[in-house]
From TrEMBL:
Cellular compartments annotated: Cell membrane
Sorted UniProt keywords: Cell membrane, Membrane, Transmembrane, Transmembrane helix
Chief localisation class: membrane
Domain of life: Bacteria
KW Iron (keyword) present: no
The name this protein goes by in its record: Na/Pi symporter
InterPro entries associated with the record: Na/Pi_transpt
Membrane topology type: Multi-pass membrane protein
Pfam family, any one: Na_Pi_cotrans
Chain segments annotated as transmembrane: 6-28, 49-82, 88-110, 131-154, 190-217, 271-291, 297-317, 338-360
Length: 384
């Protein structure tokens, strides 16, 4: 890669970062100006943790960026549009939704039976990992407030860092700047402004991911094979660093799929890298939260805790680490026999199942589940 290209890439990255934070500021300003009726609708839609979980899953699966979803959630919590406790299930759902990218990449091997089997396994090990962690933490959070209680303690430490780093009276995100004030003044519809802000935010994240990966990884996958996958710990660390740099696990985790499909690395090596990517992808929300301050820091800490829990559970223990790998390989084997199984899996897990469960969650509005949910939210509010 020549120096001219590198300078261009860095210029795009810096410009995208500046635009990213300006857009967050505009979005926060526009959210604060939404009508009370609109805000009440958003609060009501996310007050059921089951619905929140599947909203996060579907939204991330559609736009293919958990960084965008979590950044928006941080901003919405900072603006008071949704509550911190409502954001937790959405963050969990986003972690599952972001795994769709790797699974879609595996479909490119559909015409090569053996490679397709290994590609599906490599693509879905990320799914299995996040689904298992969610299956453990989601009910634990609803019944005991496991993540909320730990976050209440840890977020105070992050808040101290935020207050020392930037004066809360001139917080970059939560208080309107001159630039955002001018931009907001151009629009009569704050809903339209919020939508446009979201689109620009997504574009900036995609640009950061694309050009960040070119700077950090380059155009050769051979470099990844040679330096990043010598052992599980090294794979994990590189997965964390590279994903933090490009701010998108949707860019880094799919790189593992062709390497596993062509037997250049093992499933275990690829899985360790994926776990690292799960930690690295939390950096975006942490950066936003440090500049935002207040309740938004809680959201970023929850995102980090969720992914750390999975790593602590699976990375040190070889037997545990095999569980997502074995499940993914079984799905790969099934897909090798019946190729339609891969397509059915994607449609069912990422779209059909979430929509169906959202429908039934809404139907059970007055049932026992929502009574428990109401108690959960009441308890979390009392603790905040």
């Amino acid at each position: 890669m020549n120096n001219r290209k590198v300078h261009i890439y860095y210029s795009i990255i810096i410009t995208s970062l500046i635009l990213f934070f300006i857009t967050l500021n505009v979005m926060a300003s526009s959210l604060k100006l939404l009508s009370q009726e609109t805000i009440n609708s958003l609060i009501q839609a996310t007050s059921n943790p089951f619905i929140g979980l599947f909203i996060g899953l579907i939204a991330t699966a559609i736009i293919q960026s958990s960084s965008a979803v979590t950044s928006i959630i941080v901003t919405m919590v900072a603006a008071g549009t949704i509550s911190f406790q409502s954001s937790i299930p959405i963050i969990m759902g986003a972690n599952i939704g972001t795994t769709l990218t790797s699974t879609l990449v595996s479909l490119t091997f559909v015409n090569q039976k053996n490679k397709f089997r290994r590609a599906i396994a490599a693509g879905t090990v990320h799914d299995m990992f996040n689904i298992i962690v969610t299956a453990i933490l989601f009910p634990l959070e609803i019944t005991t407030g496991f993540l909320s209680n730990i976050t209440s303690f840890l977020s105070n430490k992050f808040k101290s860092l935020s207050y020392n780093f930037i004066d809360t009276d001139i917080s970059f995100i939560t208080h309107e700047t001159k630039i955002s004030s001018v931009i907001v003044g151009w629009f009569d519809s704050y809903i339209l402004l919020s939508i446009l802000s979201f689109i620009i935010l997504l574009i900036t994240i995609k640009l950061l991911a694309k050009y960040g990966s070119l700077v950090l990884i380059g155009e050769s996958k051979e470099k990844m094979q040679r330096y990043f996958f010598t052992n599980p710990l090294r794979s994990f660390l590189w997965g964390t660093v590279i994903t933090a740099g490009v701010q998108s696990s949707s860019v880094t985790t799919p790189l593992v799929v062709p390497l596993v499909a062509t037997k250049k690395i093992s499933m275990n090596q690829g899985f360790a890298f994926v776990m690292g990517a799960n930690i690295g992808t939390t950096i975006t929300a942490l950066l936003v939260a440090i500049f935002t301050g207040g309740a938004a820091i809680n959201v970023a800490v929850v995102h980090l805790l969720f992914n750390l829990f999975g790593v602590v559970l699976f990375l040190p223990n070889k037997a545990f680490r095999q569980i997502p790998v074995v499940l993914a390989e079984k799905l790969g084997k099934l897909t090798g026999q019946y190729r339609i199984a891969g397509f059915i899996y994607i449609i069912f897990i990422f779209f059909l199942l979430p929509y169906t469960l959202i429908y039934f969650s809404q139907k059970s509005e007055n049932g026992i589940t929502n009574n428990k949910i109401g108690s959960y939210h009441e308890q979390r509010v009392d603790n905040q």
